[in-house]
Design brief:
about 400 residues; alpha/beta; Rossmann fold; 2 domains; six-stranded parallel sheet; 13 strands
């Protein structure tokens, strides 16, 4: 293998297609962009049984090694990553393993690069259910210490890594996510989309988000309830379900707005494009985001956006969104109302959004990721026991 084309192993043991949210988007888009680079590195994906069974086209086209675990069970994910992956990667002859989801194998005779998306388990431990926060505290901390390079997806995440995990600045590479352009196919007809999800004729506000406490959807529901009925839009909440969704549904009933909210599951492809097409505004009230890709996805489609002024979101949104204090329901309600009823603001953001989104490309992310590999391969070996 020439120095210009190193053999890279991609640690995708975490990835359960359709259930991994933004980290699946990150893996799919980054891998596709890396494969298009001139002189692209040789890539081998290490995937779990669920991913192998799903037969996703982007994974099927990659040389792959099956790590024989079912990663829906976190203990199996960890077992596959820590016990099985090192040996499989050694036999595959990879020179470097890139772990794409914040945890990484802690041993093995290869260089290690780890992408950390956020430190939510430290900043908002309530976002992880059960003992997961304790596991993440141990695994992420060890992963960044034993990696040759650490990729942060935003300056905000890089700052958290420096301040909370004491990662040396010269070990960090900030590589922002990209955003894919909207598909060329037209979305489903608006009447069909509205009928399918029982949206009626009211303006639609979209908030694509996992139902997790730090996403701050409870305050979003409170903000919606505070709007006068005659100015109240229909709020649509697609995103993979969690135990927290039951609390949100109960809150909507208690506030008397259950007819003003649609709780949908995880959607992709034409279903999500149809919702984008009928939406008058997009809102992201999250208390913490490592990057906030949904903001850019909405902007790329020319949808006026309002989002929280916390963590990475101002960094991503720039001046192409309304920013609000996510702990202030009145501020959230005011931003939504402004997007829907202030025509000048809405038109300004419709024009600014695509321009802002165009500044974030997966091609650039792929180039910067490969540059991180090159730095890791040049770096002297880590001391024992990291190289065991």
């Amino acid at each position: 293998m020439s120095a210009a084309q190193p053999h890279i192993g991609l640690n995708l043991v975490f990835l359960v297609p359709g259930e991994t949210g933004g980290m699946e988007v990150y893996a799919r888009e980054l891998v596709a962009a890396m494969r298009e680079l001139p002189g692209a590195p040789a890539l081998t994906a290490f995937v779990n049984r669920e991913a192998a069974d799903a037969r996703e086209p982007w994974l099927e086209s990659l040389p792959s090694v099956i790590v024989p675990v079912r990663a829906r069970r976190r203990v199996e994910w960890v077992r596959g990553e820590q016990q099985l992956l090192p040996g499989l990667a050694r036999r595959a002859g990879v020179e470097l393993v890139h772990s794409l989801a914040s945890t990484a194998p802690l041993r093995g005779p290869f260089r290690r690069v780890t992408t950390v998306h956020d430190l939510i388990y430290l900043v908002h431990p309530e976002a992880h259910f059960g003992v997961l926060a304790l596991g993440m505290r141990a695994l992420v901390g060890l992963a960044v210490r034993r990696s040759h390079r650490v990729i942060a997806v935003s300056e905000s995440t890089a700052r958290d890594l420096r301040e909370r995990l004491h990662v040396p600045p010269d070990k960090l590479d900030v590589v922002p996510n990209g955003v894919a352009p909207p598909p060329p196919e037209p979305p489903p007809p608006a009447a069909e989309v509205r009928a399918r999800w029982d949206l009626g004729e009211r303006p639609v506000v979209l908030a694509a988000s996992a139902k997790r406490p730090h996403k701050n959807l409870a305050r979003l529901l409170g903000a919606l309830a505070s709007l006068p009925r005659e100015r109240r839009p229909l709020l649509v909440l697609p995103g993979y379900p969690t135990d927290h969704e039951r609390e949100l549904r109960e809150q909507a009933r208690a506030l008397g707005i259950e007819d003003d909210v649609r709780f949908l599951g995880w959607l992709g492809g034409a279903d999500l494009e149809g919702l984008y097409a009928v939406s008058s505004a997009f809102v992201m009230p999250s208390l913490y985001e490592g990057f906030g890709l949904p903001v850019l996805e909405a902007m790329a489609r020319g949808i006026p956006v309002a989002c929280s002024d916390r963590s990475s979101l101002p960094e991503v949104a720039g001046d192409a969104a309304l920013l609000f204090d996510p702990e202030d329901e009145a501020a959230i309600a005011g931003a939504i109302d402004q997007l829907l009823h202030d025509r000048a603001t809405a038109e300004r953001l419709r024009a600014a959004g695509p321009r802002r989104a165009s500044e974030f490309s997966w091609r650039r992310a792929a180039e910067q990721t490969v540059a991180s590999y090159e730095r890791a391969l040049r770096k002297p070996g880590l001391p024992s026991p990291e190289r065991e």
